[in-house]
Amino acid sequence: MIINSPDVTTILGAGKILGETAGGTKYGIIEAVTDEEFGRWEYESGDTVIQESGMLETDDQLFYWRVRNL
Questions:
Q1: How big is the CA angle at 38 (ends 35 and 41), to the nearest 5 degrees?
Q2: Is 54 left (phi over 0), alpha (psi -120 to 50) or beta?
Q3: Could you tell me the sign of the dihedral formed by the alpha carbons of 42, 45, 46, 48, in that order?
Q4: Ramachandran region of residue 56, left (φ > 0), alpha (ψ -120 to 50) or beta?
Q5: Measured between alpha carbons, how far is residue 2 from residues 6, 23, 30, 45 in Å?
Q6: What is the model's pTM?
Q7: pLDDT at position 31, please?
Q8: Above pLDDT 70, what percent of the chain?
Q9: 60-69, strands of its sheet edge to edge
């Protein structure tokens, strides 16, 4: 069971580009870079409750795009 973790993911940077071509095609690009997140958890091993801490979430780079021709 996780006993201590961040409520949100830390975003180190993000960007967004939106546009439309002369022909009417719309496009959008979103990118974000997130940081590592750490916390504590506990579990049972026999009659013993063990508490540990470490990384819960790795750093990541997210990239989304969409193209729409109306």
A1: 155
A2: left
A3: negative
A4: alpha
A5: 11, 52, 31, 15
A6: 0.69
A7: 98
A8: 100
A9: 11-20, 25-34, 60-69
